[in-house]
Amino acid sequence: MSAREEVLARLRTALRDAPVEPEPVRDYRREGTTDPEELRALLVDRLRDYKATVHETTPDGLPTTLSAVLADATVLAVPADLPVEWLAGHTGEVRADPDVPGLDTSDAVLTGAAVAIAETGTIVLDAGPAQGRRALTLVPDRHVCVLFAEQVVATVPEAIARLRSPASPLTWISGPSATSDIELRRVEGVHGPRRLDVVLVGAADG
Amino acid sequence: MTIPHGSGNLVGLPFPTAAKPRVRDIGLRANLRRATGTIRAKRAAVVEEVERTGDWEPLREAGRAIKAWTMRNLPELLERFETAATEAGAVVHWARDADEANRIVGDLIRARNQREIVKVKSMATQEIGLNEALAAQGIEATETDLAELIVQLAGDEPSHILVPAIHKNRSEIRELFAARMPGTDASLTDEPAALAEAARRHLRAKFLSAKVAVSGANFAVAETGTLVVVESEGNGRMCLTLPETLISVVGVEKILPRFADLEVFLQLLPRSSTGERMNPYTSMWTGATDGDGPSDVHIVLIDNGRSATLADEVGRQALHCIRCSACLNVCPVYERTGGHAYGSVYPGPIGAILSPQLTGVAANKSLPYASSLCGACYEVCPVKINIPEVLVHLRQEAPKNAAEKSAMATMGWVMRSRRRYEAGLRAARMGSSPWRGKGSLSRLPWPMSGWTSSRDLPVPPRESFRDWWKREAAEGTGANGEGE
């Protein structure tokens, strides 16, 4: 008998006399606030609590804000499909989808995101538009992430419902890389980016 | 068919023997008290945040129910996972036990002509002793989680599920890094940030050049074939993203039925483990993706005693564990003995019910007694595993010596009859008068001596509640309460 057949046979034997389990009841909270101002304030609070730097801007102000945020990034990595207008004010070297050595010598990476969760201060990347492959947001020491107000939801279940499918890799990011391994005290900055900047783009008249 | 038990790093010295020197180690106890105190406060704060919306109990109940349903349907869900993962480009392997899993992983690495691999912290690979097995084949595995790295550099054993180096304080870690980590020197300080920076520099080149990584997984989604790794430092992302080959060793009980079930566990796990609203990084991957991450993706599903555990109708709930370690952090026994006393990679309350079931209780019979049955573990468990219930159940299963058997039998006989119980209590009260003032009884006469040889009994009060009730009722004063 193969290992596969044997393990499955053992499990079936183990369950021979087990009663039928009822379908799980899922009556936890699915939705939180939908008020844009509450969502914005909650997300900003939670991001800052986990030591991300938050910059707020408008669609028209985005290039100016990014050029200020990225002023000290001499070499900037970006995904190949990053909207060109985002970098209208940027003057440094820009590398589109560089290889790992190219990422390792970049000062920062600029991407978009798929969805953000206000209650937990989490950004989710799903390899969709303006996000690129996973190594991009991992190897450089600084990640600057552009987030639009309509991408922000309140709860984890709302975010799961918005994600297209897990067929492409997903990365959930809550603050910069951190560890609690020394005396269980949180220290920011280990192997992933040690700085996380979130550029939150609000309504046009914001 | 009889279902074989598992093997690996699950059995040590008997718990009382292993615990004795550790409870006398003042430094160890101070490190544990400080660390568990910190994490208890953090967990309480972020759980309370969810309790305020009334959502913590519904989430725990959903977590429990999803796990119970999963275990009942495990064979079908595993087949579904295998089909989905294979369609997405992964190769699924099955292992009956630790040796078989180690052989599969070793063969995969050697077939790719590699001598060095990087590893993400994984309880399953610790359980099966993968690093030692690979070393015997001439393959060097580098642990990349900070705490695992500390343990590996020290030639030590992990002592906590989440923070394997919880028994070491910052100055001990500083000494270790300065002595054993290439590229560090005497100028290294014991600031946690400086220690983390040293680990970053040490591992960076390894991450960027590694061809093979080995990971575990927190969850495996049957519906989609997706694996999930929850972490903090980014070492997990490095291992899961940069190498060409990724081998994930996954216990068969890690299955979740649906992708959407993650919305329950990604709320329960980080708040219960590190006491964060969300951990810094969670990676989810489904087979291989062109141009993004490893192209050669393997999954090793291991049994190693899990099917034997599943066969026990009371004990099978131990398989619901999501390895958050909240039960360790609240356990008064763990706080005094530390993790090494349990002799297994799974220490603390969950280890006391999981390890003996994976190995068979006969091979690990002291662990079900490594608890005061205070119930704090059950209260914090995010998937509501009734650990005290399983402990008591396993004590009944464990082979006992003659004195204890006789004491248990006598206790059972006394407790089954109200008349005998009341008479016994009165006898104990009168018999205990010479010890009054000490507060507890440490030795009872035979046949009860078997009971008190390893535990103290509180001195019974002068008058039992039952006697007081009868007297008050007869005197017609206090007894205006309701019936039972």
TrEMBL record, chain A:
Gene3D superfamilies: NagB/RpiA/CoA transferase-like (3.40.50.10420)
Family matches, as SUPFAM superfamilies: NagB/RpiA/CoA transferase-like
Residues of the signal peptide: none
Span of domain LUD: 104-201
Protein's recorded name: L-lactate dehydrogenase complex protein LldG
TrEMBL record, chain B:
Residue ranges constituting the LUD domain according to the UniProt record: 78-302
Organism: Phytomonospora endophytica
Xref: Pfam families: Fer4_8 (PF13183), LUD_dom (PF02589), LutB_C (PF11870)
Domain 4Fe-4S ferredoxin-type: 318-385
Gene Ontology BP term (one): lactate metabolic process
Phylogenetic lineage: Bacteria, Bacillati, Actinomycetota, Actinomycetes, Micromonosporales
Segments traversing the membrane: none
Gene3D superfamilies: Alpha-helical ferredoxin, NagB/RpiA/CoA transferase-like
Keyword annotations of the record: 4Fe-4S, Electron transport, Iron, Iron-sulfur, Metal-binding, Repeat, Transport
The name this protein goes by in its record: L-lactate dehydrogenase complex protein LldF
GO molecular function list: 4 iron, 4 sulfur cluster binding; metal ion binding
Residue ranges of domain Lactate utilization protein B C-terminal in the record: 396-472
Source domain of life: Bacteria
